[in-house]
Amino acid sequence: MKTPDLRRVDAHEKVTGTARYGADRVPADLAYAMFAVATIGKGRTVAIDTAAAEAVPGVRLVLTRFTEDELRGPGFLMGGGFAFQSLQPLLSDVVAYRGQPIALVVADTLVAATEAAELVRARYETEPFAVGIDDEGATSVLQEEALSWFPDVKVGDAESAYAASPVQIDETYLHPAQHQVPMELISSVVEWRGDRLVVHESTQNAGALRHGVATQLNLDPADVEVISPYIGGGFGSRNALQPHIGPLALAARRLMRPVKLVIPRPQTFHTGSFRPVSRHRIRLGADSSGRLLAALHDAEHQTSRHDLYPAMFTEMTSRLYAVPNFGGRQRLVQTDVQTPGFMRAPMEGPASFAFESAIDALAYATGQDPVELRLANDTATDPVTGLPFSSRHLAQCLTRGAERFGWGKRDPRPGSMRAADGSFVGLGVAVGAHPVLVAPAVARMSAAADGRVTVGVDGHEMGQGIRSAIALLVAEDLGVPVRDVVVQVGDTRFAPQHLTAGAWGTATALPAVHKALRELRKHLGTGDTGTVDVAAAVRATGGGSPEVEVTSVGPGQPPEMLDRSRAGLFSAAGPVFPDFTAFSWVAHFVEVRIEATTRRISVPRALCVVDCGRVASPVTAVSQVRGGVVWGISQALRESSEVDGRFGGFLNTTLEEYPVAVNADIQEIDFDFIDEPDLLLNDVGVKGLGEVTMIGAAAAVANAVFHATGQRQNQLPIRIEHVM
After folding, report:
1. Of 340, 311, 303, which is closest to residue 328 (Cα–Cα)?
2. Active site positions, annotated
3. Owning domain of residue 498
4. Could you tell me how far CA 445 lies from the centroid of its own chain?
5. Where is the Aldehyde oxidase/xanthine dehydrogenase a/b hammerhead domain (predicted)?
6. Which end of the chain is more exposed for a tag (fewer CB within 10 A), N or C?
């Protein structure tokens, strides 16, 4: 697919540095904040000595405790609240995990705040703690017993069908904890303008932040503004209210000065969420030809003591193939960490590594080509609900990808292919899927006498290109230049700003914008189609700049879901809708090379073919694919958050010690899109893209490593010692 000559609408701002992120604001009389954090794995603070910190020149406040009259708990996002975890630091002497904030220092300069925070000393009473899912003291619960609204997936009699299957695969896979490490650090600038609180923060959920901090401080949400025009990478780390906002707002009110906090990288490994460690037992039953008869996916993953972060692994694995009997069981393991959360392809990434590795093992066990086995088990109907898929072009992703990648030239024997330098060559394939979710949205649109069209809509610009997708839709519909479309997102002054995550940003915003375009055309008297001279049409109305407001919901969503969204609560629906089930689909093809002596693993080329419905913005879609594949390679070969069994918390909390894929790791990444609009889902025909591009990439790498070496890799990341 050829990328059209279209720049991102925000390209100039980003390249020239005029784009403004959360902490870029420097209002007059700005003060700077820094946290002091707990150095024990679990217990309570007996005493906190702040004398040395308060003596640092320029220090204005050292806050160690707020009363419940001042600051309330925010509630857990997945439990009907607003924050990534229910625990709010600085409300009690309890230390739930290492790295938990125990004091907030505010000073005239960042240097003074940092120095003073390091001088805060605490005495503790310690308690035994567990940071790993196998540690003594870790406790577990079955998810469907503890969280009945997240039931396990069960179709047919999977246990009996598996026991009777001629071919059986039974493997266990371990996926490590990982952190999102976005380029932009977690940061905020808060200020009071009279009784009005204004928060500048890079967030994926300005609505939850607004209502959450209003709840914490007993404010009217109308008196809270959250402004987040750009995010320097979210990937799930900014999905909800962060625990620093409430304390920061109280500090700013006490000082009557704006306050900025930029959390240092090591602290972000403990003050924000992370992808929890998970373990997956996959059992596949098939006949001798590789036709699936049964699949069982037993998973356990980490959560905190104070929240149950739900697992949703089997939602995807139960839909990948035509499996008549499927059994899923998910267990939550409570440990002494902050509440885990979402990280790009949060459940689907680890689940696809496990399930697609097992599918690859089944192909070898039955003597089938891995691509052909997947095609033979394709389905047009959701095996769980019996509903048709709104669209599913996974077979086309596989066949087009195999031809483009040169899969037919592959020697199927493990260890049989060598490069000219003696390196072992392996080719791997894997597929993935991501549920299509849709949230309610509000869109406001106006046209001006100078020909410009302004759109304010629910959505956040995290680098994924939602601005470009919206601007392109408006420009194509009206026949106006993209430069004449002004897009306002991530700002509670223009729309409620529901959480943007799970690849539902475009599928949520664009239908609302499309609906607003229909209404604007009515006001301009231009008909439903055709090019519009906006300036002339506005003048012809004789009534100033026409403005419209519309709302939209997902298929089958009741209108009251808009009220939840306006209240800052999670309101997404799907992937099961009244008449169909909706997923985006992907096929990954990867070549690995393993040096004969050093055993260093490299990925010289990768191909990703995606079915995401209509490609709304080709230039940003290509970036999404490449970014997802890079992250999949990093997931497979680099990233792991190592816990500290001695003192609690995580050990490798800097980018020097938490390796991610870099330019030297990335070579050729090819891509293709099916680009078939999904008009059952919405009038624009778009599904999600951002998450699915990563799903299956790590499995394809692992399967390629097996093809190169004959050694099955059941744990990520795959390191040199694993292929010696």
Report:
1. 311
2. 691
3. 437-572
4. 28
5. 16-128
6. C
